[in-house]
Amino acid sequence: MALSGDLKERLARLRANIEPRVAGLAGAGPAFVLFLSFTDLTRRAITVTATGDNFDIAWNGVTARLWEHLVRERIRPCWLRVDWVEQAEEITWRILKQRLTSTKRNYFRYGLSLDRCFANAFLEGELNANAMLYGGPGIEHAVVNEANFARYARLRHGLEHLDFSDDRPIIQFSARGAFMEESGAVHWLAGAGPDASRRIIERLQPADIRGLIERGSHYLATQVGSDGRFTYGWHPCFDREIRAYNALRHASTLYAMLEAWEVTRDPSLFDAIDRGLSHLTEHLIRTVDLGDEKLASWLRPMARSSSAAMPSACLRCANMPSLPAARGTIPCWSSWLLPSVGCRTAQPGVSTMCSPIRALP
Predict the structure, then answer these.
(1) Is residue 253 left, alpha or beta, with left meaning phi > 0 and alpha meaning psi from -120 to 50?
(2) Do residues 87 and 38 touch, judged by C-beta distance below 8 A?
(3) What's the mean pLDDT in 81-107?
(4) Residue 297 has what pLDDT?
(5) Residue 46 · residue 152 · CB < 8 Å
(6) E strand or H helix at 279
(7) Taking the complete model, does pTM exceed 0.85, yes or no?
């Protein structure tokens, strides 16, 4: 299986863009270390690594490994990304563990290599996506998760045994990158620092902002099922859906989608909002008529994990100028939601939130 002409052309354009920006590393290790990541948009990206004494050798190495995966996986890459190492420091597992104690979990912005030759290296994105430095929700700072580290090292590099002893040397490195869309547009990615791996935009333009709104809201719309319930999230480490749910995030996300729809007027986005609002009113919140034109609303037990901000999020949705267009499909929305004000309920097993009773106008 040969590389298609289109892919060859895109790779050539990507190389022409990045080669002038890549400088060789000093020291005993390889002068050039390149990572090439690619995906067909239906599965998680595959990352390959190659090194060389010059850029040409390293580039030919990563493209050859790309070709190997195309043959084996039979995929057509749509997105391409290249990262190159800018700085490398030899440390030990002990030093890394000490540094992680002052690093918030999921905020480690460096890559790690298990050897000086970068034969077994991992980008910052790989470390975080595979929970290799995540100790669980009870630990605020990053930690070496040996089980997850060993799991991904086996998948990525075929390593069966890892040595995590404190005095074992490893390499901590920073990298800069470039991302290429299917259209061939190239976007530069930031290097070391809090913005590592983020797209560099020197000054936001109106078209940039609208694009963010359109793409972000389109993605959110695709996450709303036919029942109006969101796909809450995905564990990239295990390729498994997050089964938890949170009514506050459901309501506040709908509010963001309503704001986006006022800009885009995308029919598919509006349909997703409509389904989400129906799920909110029919399954997450219960409203009863107490008579004398008084209503009471509260969260159902399955939504009890939400906070006191829930009524506020619902009110923001109800007061959106774009909502009246949906009132015909959401009966009595304002009649029970608009009077809602957050309060705690002492009745166990029923709800954690309710609305104080107030006469409607």
Answers:
(1) alpha
(2) no
(3) 97
(4) 65
(5) no
(6) helix 267-279
(7) no
Pairing relationship of beta strands 186-189 and 121-122 according to DSSP bridges: unpaired
| Six-digit token string for 95 | 């030093």
Spacing of C-alpha 73 from chain mean position: 24
CA gap 179, 198 in Å, rounded: 10
Exposure b/e, 328-357, CB count within 10 A at least 16 = b? eebeebeebbbbbebeeeeeeeebbbbbee
H-helix segments, 104-246: 124-129, 146-157, 206-222
Centroid of chain to Cα 198? 12
Run of H or E including 65: helix 55-73
- CA gap 84, 82 in Å, rounded: 7
User: In terms of residues, how long is the chain?
Assistant: 361
DSSP state of 345: -
Among 233, 239, 230, CA closest to 257: 230
Q: Report which listed range, 243-252, 257-266, 316-325, is most confident.
A: 257-266
Among all chains, which residue has been given the structure tokens 């009514």?
247
Q: How far apart are CA 12 and CA 10, in angstroms?
A: 5
158 three-class SS = coil
- Amino acid at residue number 28: A
